[in-house]
Design a protein that fits this description.
alpha/beta, about 190 residues, flat, 19 strands, single chain
Length: about 190
């Protein structure tokens, strides 16, 4: 019981410190803290800055959030992130928060995967040929992404899909899809 009380007090002090510095330095300070804070503190930080989180989410380690500020669509918080009950989020997952990212319950995301909600070449000459595109990412209940998977803007993955490690998902797939490759393609429909 004393250990839990100590953890509770330490968490509140840590949150108070982060809020103090975030008040002066902005939410980017919180973004940097998510890359190094203790894993039990990740959901506290995310929820305190607007993310919608379910119950019993297993965060395995540090995370990278991009475009929380500085982008024309930035919300200056984590309100574009929604994670359902009993999800497992591997170490080093990258969340691009220009648009919404919805993870339904029991989604698994392997280490160092990237969820990219936009493509923008900025002021580069090629931007005339490839204008800015944004779109939400929706990953339905029970889907699993292996390590180092890249999911691009506007993709919706159906229920209980499996995405092989290292795949680049550029389009949406229906329920029970086994997906692999660069770009990812349907390997087969899983039995259910």
């Amino acid at each position: 019981m004393l250990k839990n009380l100590f953890k509770f007090l330490l968490s509140n002090l840590y949150l108070l410190k982060i809020r103090f510095f975030a008040f002066f330095l902005g939410v980017e300070y919180v973004v940097r803290k998510l890359e190094s804070c203790p894993k039990y503190f990740v959901p506290i930080l995310l929820m305190n800055y607007g993310a919608k989180l379910g119950k019993k989410i297993h965060f395995k380690g540090y995370y990278r959030m991009d475009n929380v500020t500085g982008d024309e669509s930035a919300t200056n918080d984590f309100s574009n992130l929604s994670i359902g009950d009993r999800c497992v989020i591997g170490k080093g997952v990258f969340f691009d928060l220009v648009d919404k990212i919805y993870l339904e319950k029991e989604v698994g995301i392997g280490a160092h995967s990237m969820l990219m909600t936009h493509m923008d070449l900025g002021q580069m000459p090629m931007s005339a040929l490839y204008p800015r595109k944004t779109g939400p990412i929706v990953i339905r209940e029970g889907t699993f992404l292996g390590a180092h998977v890249l999911v691009l803007h506007g993709v919706e993955l159906g229920r209980c899909c499996i995405v092989a490690a290292g795949s680049v998902v550029t389009k949406s797939f229906p329920d029970y899809s086994l997906i692999a490759g660069v770009p990812a393609r349907l390997v087969r429909v899983l039995e259910h």
